[in-house]
Amino acid sequence: MEWKKLCARWEKRTDKNSDCAYMNVMRRIIPYIVTLVVMLMLDAIWLSLASQAVYRAQLGDILIPGFRLLPALSFYLVYAFGIQIFAVARARSGKQALGLGAAFGVFAYATYDLTNWATLRDWTFALSLTDICWGAVLTGAGALAGYAAKRVLPKT
């Protein structure tokens, strides 16, 4: 049954709009989860391929052997939320979601990378450029995936 019809039926009942409220929540949570999963998968692939060649080769001893789970998880949870606010929620098309996401990625990653280049001895322009480009790709892909998930969900 179409969600609008279901919502109209529920409005006539005493527990009115419970399914409509549920769908409104799902229309926010599911795109967030999809964005988060896509980002985690893509970043895991990128880091497994590039960490030795790009990051460890350049930064050497300042990197720990693995990673700290709590700050890493915190980053992904917060960043995926930012993608929802600044890209997915504003996009009116997949192309726009991709563009807004990529722009958000450039700004966010440039903040980190250019600050590092300005303050860390072994940080280079090439490393900043590589990481900023990756931020644009990763964030654009996450935003596009979140937008696609939002589009397939029924509207209330």
TrEMBL record:
<dbReference type="Pfam" id="PF09945">
    <property type="entry name" value="DUF2177"/>
</dbReference>
<protein>
    <submittedName>
        <fullName>Membrane protein</fullName>
    </submittedName>
</protein>
<dbReference type="InterPro" id="IPR018687">
    <property type="entry name" value="DUF2177_membr"/>
</dbReference>
<keyword id="KW-1133">Transmembrane helix</keyword>
<feature type="transmembrane region" description="Helical">
    <location>
        <begin position="124"/>
        <end position="149"/>
    </location>
</feature>
<feature type="transmembrane region" description="Helical">
    <location>
        <begin position="29"/>
        <end position="49"/>
    </location>
</feature>
<keyword id="KW-0812">Transmembrane</keyword>
<keyword id="KW-0472">Membrane</keyword>
<feature type="transmembrane region" description="Helical">
    <location>
        <begin position="96"/>
        <end position="112"/>
    </location>
</feature>
<feature type="transmembrane region" description="Helical">
    <location>
        <begin position="69"/>
        <end position="89"/>
    </location>
</feature>
